[in-house]
Structures are given as structure tokens and as C-alpha cells.
């Protein structure tokens, strides 16, 4: 399916943020898997949404796997970047993989017709519209109902991209939000490292570029260090005080590691996150 994807497509995946893309040397190379770390008081979602929105604007195929929020949450954030995610899903450019509402079948029930019901009065039928009269996109959403099987998560990513046809100008990028939920759900860390290894292998072979996020301060530092060593690159988002306004907090993005590009280590960019958008500070 993915034999020569990315052959002559742009060899880097940009964030669409000139200062950050410049610091990265053009963006994240295709075929690599990067980790983005945050801690309490930071918000990496605008950074991720900018990365995915830039992919859609560049005609890449996109997958978004969420363990922490439902589709509506990301819908409004895509819109902040001028992207209509429903139209992108209908055009088969965007695939949403729901590992949040379906996880452990909490709040998500299967009705007698074999269709999912959200538990809030909305079900997805065969008429092409949901209960609120909007377009029915349920058939394109992949549901993960058990986070205790990390291998199944990678399989869900693979299934979500089966419609993508290989070609010299085809590009794929995606995001897994977040690894923390997978770690907490897994029986042992071996499964987590297997998930990361499989994700990197799929990215490398298919010239895909994936971002995996993690809540760094929620995990043992030794485990975090092991995960960092598995990645092609690591970025860390931390809060810093605005020197011109002591009452405002800025977000600093620092390159911790970049495979084959040691000169990037330690480079920093500061942003102001506002209403889902990113503004250079």
C-alpha cells in the first residue's frame, strides 16, 4: 500500500510556524517519529494543531489519534486554523481515531444495529446524517475500545490509512495524543516500548511522520529517559514568564534531541498561545 509514498513529496513536515520550522532546519523529516513533552501549566495542543493543519494545507493525509479528547474538541481547534475538519474527513484527507470515548466502552454503547451511540442522545445511523442534522462521519472514525493493547493502537492507525493510494507525491503525517494514557493503561512498560518501536518502524518504512505527546511530569524520569532514547527527535514545551508582562505566561519550545542533527540540541523558540492559535512572542 505505502511502497513509494513520499518519494518526491516535500521531505520535511512543517509546523507552519516560521521561527520553529527554521530552528528545526525546515521541519520534521518524513519517516521520523518525534516526542513532544509537556508538564502541568503548559499546552501543546496549539502546536500539534498547527502541525496537522499545515499538513492538510500541504495536501498530506492526516491521522489524529486521541486518548484524551473527543472529535468535537479538535473540531473547534482545527477551525481556529481555517480548517473545516468535517469536510476534510469527507474528502478522506483526515482520519480521526477515537481512543477516548470508546475506551473501555465508557459512555459509548453499541446499539442493536451494530452502530455506536454516544450516550448523549446522538447515534450514528445509515442516513448520512447524525442526530443533530449534520453530516454523519462515524463510518470514517476508528474506535479503540481498550488501551491496554498498544499493538492494537498501531493497527488502528494502519486501518485508518488503508484508503491512501501510494504515489511519488503522497505524504502522510499524524499525531498520537497522548502516550501518557497508553502508559497508564498498559500492564507493563514492555508493551509501551513495543508500541513505540512499531510506530517508528511504520513511519520509517512508509515515509510517514508522527508526533507522539507525553505529560512528562506524570512519569518516572527513568521511564521518560528510555522513551526519549527511542525517538528520532524530542521537543519540550515549558512555561516561561513574559519579561514584558509578569502576569502573562509564555510557552517555550526547546529541542532536546534531533537524530543526526546534534547542532539543533538546545535551540529554543518562545510562543504566546491565545484562543487556540500561536503567536510568536
How would you describe what is shown here?
- The chain has one domain (about 10-280): Rossmann fold (3-Layer(aba) Sandwich), CATH 3.40.50.300.
- About 30% of the residues lie in helices and about 25% in strands.
- It contains eight helices and 14 strands.
- The protein has helices at about 20-25, 45-55, 70-80, 85-90, 150-160, 180-185, 190-205, 220-230, and strands at about 10-15, 30, 35-40, 60-65, 95-100, 110, 115, 140-145, 170-175, 210-215, 235-240, 245-260, 270-275, 275-280.
- The strands form three sheets. It has a ten-stranded mixed β-sheet with strand order 8-5-4-9-10-3-11-12-13-14, with helices on both faces. A two-stranded antiparallel ribbon has the order 1-2. It has a two-stranded antiparallel sheet with strand order 6-7.
- α5 (about 150-160) runs parallel beside α7 (about 190-205).
- The radius of gyration is 19 Å and the shape is globular.
- It starts with 11 loop residues before the first strand and ends with a strand.
Amino acid at each position: 500500500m505505502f511502497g513509494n509514498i513520499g518519494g518526491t513529496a516535500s521531505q520535511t513536515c512543517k509546523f507552519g510556524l516560521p521561527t520553529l520550522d527554521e530552528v528545526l532546519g525546515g521541519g520534521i523529516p518524513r519517516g521520523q517519529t518525534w516526542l513532544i513533552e509537556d508538564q502541568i501549566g503548559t499546552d501543546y495542543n496549539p502546536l500539534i494543531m498547527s502541525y496537522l493543519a499545515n499538513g492538510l494545507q500541504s495536501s498530506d493525509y492526516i491521522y489524529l489519534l486521541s486518548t484524551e479528547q473527543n472529535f468535537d474538541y479538535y473540531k473547534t481547534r482545527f477551525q481556529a486554523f481555517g480548517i473545516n475538519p468535517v469536510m476534510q474527513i469527507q474528502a478522506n484527507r483526515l482520519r480521526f481515531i477515537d481512543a477516548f470515548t470508546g475506551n473501555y466502552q465508557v459512555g459509548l454503547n453499541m446499539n442493536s444495529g451494530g452502530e455506536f451511540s454516544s450516550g448523549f442522545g446522538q447515534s450514528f445511523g445509515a442516513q448520512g446524517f447524525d442526530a443533530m442534522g449534520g453530516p454523519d462521519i462515524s463510518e470514517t472514525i476508528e474506535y479503540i475500545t481498550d488501551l491496554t493493547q498498544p499493538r492494537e493502537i498501531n493497527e488502528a492507525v494502519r486501518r485508518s490509512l488503508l484508503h491512501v493510494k501510494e504515489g511519488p507525491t503522497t505524504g502522510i503525517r499524524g499525531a498520537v495524543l497522548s502516550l501518557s494514557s497508553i502508559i497508564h493503561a498498559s500492564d507493563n512498560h514492555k508493551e509501551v516500548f513495543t508500541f513505540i518501536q512499531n510506530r517508528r518502524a511504520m513511519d520509517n518504512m512508509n515515509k510517514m511522520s508522527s508526533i507522539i505527546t507525553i505529560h512528562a511530569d506524570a512519569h518516572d524520569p527513568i521511564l521518560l529517559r528510555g522513551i526519549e532514547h527511542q525517538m528520532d527527535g524530542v521537543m519540550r514545551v515549558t512555561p516561561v514568564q513574559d519579561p514584558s508582562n509578569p502576569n502573562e505566561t509564555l510557552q517555550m519550545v526547546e529541542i532536546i534531541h534531533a537524530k543526526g542533527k546534534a547542532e539543533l540540541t538546545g535551540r529554543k523558540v518562545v510562543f504566546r498561545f491565545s484562543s487556540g492559535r500561536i503567536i510568536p512572542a
